[in-house]
Request: fold
Amino acid sequence: MRTITLKMLAAELRLSPGTVSKALKGSHEISEATREKVMDMARRLDYVPNPYASSLRRRTSKTIGVVLPAMADSFFSMTIEGIEAVAGDKGYHVLIYLSHESYYKEAAIVKDFQSGRVDGVLISLSGETWNTDHLHTLTDKNIPVVYFDRVCEENDVARIATDDMEAGFAAASHLLEAGCKRLLFLSPSDNLAIIKRRLAGCRKAAPGIASLLCIGDLHQQHLRIREALAMPDRPDGIIASVESLGYATYQACTSLGLEIPSDVKVVAFSNMPTASLLHPSLTTVEQPAFEIGKTAATVLFKGIEKGYNHLSEESRMIPSVLVPRGSTAKA
Reply:
């Protein structure tokens, strides 16, 4: 079955495409009789408007780009739900790109956006990103950019995140209250500002007894954590700064015969729905992922609709919540 275009519909009606377009949109410039004639023919021919064609005429793509470092983390899947909720109401499509924690991959994706492929960009930085010069090119081309979760402090753009220093402080304080004496902070990167803030909060709560273990390679997580737990002065409290490190800690403890929480207590930054089903249930710092995504998208569309990209005054800080469970229970 052939697809009926606006030009084909206009030819069938012996009217100009412009007149037919205005009639379909209910323009007051077109008489009621002509509008009814056009609508009747559109129904009979099963005409469906092409949103992409109209977008091109308006020099917009009706699409936003979302750049994520990974999708293995439940946080990002919940964030996408929040973004989609806003984009869908606005009639926009969402293109999702993965940087796979690579700065160069991230820069290549951003370069692709410069062609006008998207009307705005939401980005959570990769673990390797040491500067954001590649993102300046987007704002120079008047393409609004909003950072979420993994943000950059230097750029004059909107940042939607949670108070990571306060969250790190709360996690470490909780372990100290549970009786821990030696804390180990597990990190996937030493570049990310978000991780540095969480570590700073941890060390503020536990000065002198909180050490850092940076594990950049996903395939080395279990081995490196196992090595740390096998030491004579092993930690008795672990803060996993990302969800995957929480899983790896459980695996390492099982392989060494260590009991959680009697031998080691564990807190993980995680929005994992199954945290309460683990044995023991996992104490988590839960970020407001859906709200972060929804807020970031709302701010981005404000920039798109108003035609400006200086959105730094729209930055938001949304609190996280510590949820105590079995992995940090007192003896």
Q: What stands out?
A: The mean pLDDT is 89. Residues 61-162+289-319 form a domain with the Rossmann fold fold (CATH 3.40.50.2300). The first helix runs from residue 6 to 13.
